[in-house]
Amino acid sequence: MGVALINSDSVQQSKDRLALSKLGFSRIHQFSGLDAAKSSLAEASVQLILVGDKVGPLTGSQCLKDLKSLTNLKQKAVVMVSTDGRRERVLKAISAGCGGYVLRPYVLDTFAKHLKAAWESTRPDETSLERVQMGVDLAFTGQFGEAVKELSAVTAQENDSLEWFNKGLEFLRQQEFGQAIACFNKALAVNALFAEAYRGLAYAHKGLGDQEKHLEYLKKTADILAMQDKLQELKELYVEILSHDPDAVNPYNTLGVRLRRSGDLSGALHAYTRALALTPTDENLHYNIAKAYLHAADKEKAASHLRQALVIKPDFTEASEMLVTLEKDDS
Questions:
Q1: What is the mean pLDDT of the segment spanning 312-328?
Q2: Measured over all CA atoms, what is the biggest interatomic distance in the chain, rounded to whole angstroms?
Q3: Is the dihedral of CA 312, 318, 324, 329 positive or negative?
Q4: In angstroms, rounded to a whole number, what is the distance separating the alpha carbons of residues 217 and 222?
Q5: Distance, CA of 272 to CA of 265 (rounded, Å)
Q6: Smallest Cα–Cα separation from 121: which of 87, 164, 158, 86?
Q7: Could you tell me if 40 and 34 are in contact, meaning their C-beta atoms sit under 8 angstroms apart?
């Protein structure tokens, strides 16, 4: 397995290279900036990326966020190796998608443990992964019945990504950052596995002429892509869904409603903002955003979205009544 080091500090980079060599890594790529690294990082042999505190003009967290935005690097394990152990810095790295957080100076055993945990937490179980790949290959070669059989065996299992996510939140509350990171990455890996399996099932059923099942699994894929915040990928899939079902619900809107009801207002508003990129003229979406802003005690933004909903649909009774109530409260 290849490893890439991205760090502007040559002294730190040399120390990390020596540690990796002692652990048996032989294919070690070194870069001082992200732009120079991008083409090499996409190579299949590079499965682990170590990011320092500074990467050219970027901070380590900024570099990590940029890496995670690149589709061809989604499955790579990225570890921050930092001199800064402050809680807010670790949380920033977690939100950017790091697979591990190693504090300098480190001992070799601790370094190895973090790298192993990062690698394992980004991978679903190998048997399921192989079945999904086999099922997708069968679908693309026209063996649709066999593809459905393989992929259904994977989706028949419980998608326990939410359980892993909740475990991560609990570890985060306890400030057990390493454990939290592993759980969050496991949740992402499981969801990615199910998304690929559902997508494969959609096209296998299409090949079998079952349009109802084809659409059902496209929508399941879309729900997971919304949870993973893969906007561009979801846009393409949503266009296909709409060609079969013009009234299909925006999956980001569904996610926003779920997050708002659970009390995660910032998460809900982010999901709604993404939803607007897919369906900007959906009056119900603007109404839902208004409700989220109302819960966040931002009456001005709530009223703005209610007015937009009424421009799209002037006879939208619920939006009109809510706006009247807001305006009375302000008078």
A1: 91
A2: 71
A3: negative
A4: 9
A5: 10
A6: 164
A7: no
Q: How far apart are CA 147 and CA 143, in angstroms?
A: 6
pTM for the whole structure: 0.64
- Identify the residue whose tokens are 């320092």: 52
231 pLDDT higher than 70: no
| pLDDT tens digits, 183-201 | 887 887 788 888 889 999 9
- Total residue count of the chain as it appears in this document: 331
* Residue 96: C-alpha distances to residues 11, 14, 310, 329 (Å): 25, 25, 37, 40
Amino acid at 172: L
- Distance in angstroms (rounded) separating the CA atoms of residues 12 and 52: 8
Q: Which CATH class is domain 250-331?
A: mainly alpha
- Common-topology check for domains 123-248 and 250-331: yes
Instruction: Work out whether strand 2-6 and strand 46-51 pair parallel, antiparallel, or are unpaired.
Output: parallel
pLDDT at position 209: 92
Q: How many Å apart are CA 57 and CA 50, to the nearest integer? A: 17
Only one residue has tokens 């079902």, namely 245
- CA torsion sign for 34, 267, 293, 287 is positive
- Rounded to whole angstroms, the Cα distance separating 76 from 63 reads 14
Tell me the CATH class for 123-248: mainly alpha
Structure tokens at 187: 């949740």
The yes-or-no verdict on residue 317 having pLDDT over 90 is yes
Which amino acid makes up residue 171?
A: F
Distance CA 298, CA 291 (A): 10
Q: Looking at the chain, which runs of residues are DSSP E strands?
A: 2-6, 28-31, 46-51, 54-55, 58-59, 77-82, 100-103
Report how far residue 119's alpha carbon sits from residue 78's, in angstroms, rounded to the nearest whole number: 8
Which residue ranges make up each domain of the chain? Answer: 2-121, 123-248, 250-331
Q: For residue 278, what pLDDT is reported?
A: 87
Q: What is the CATH number of domain 2-121?
A: 3.40.50.2300
Peptide bond into 246 cis (omega under 30): no
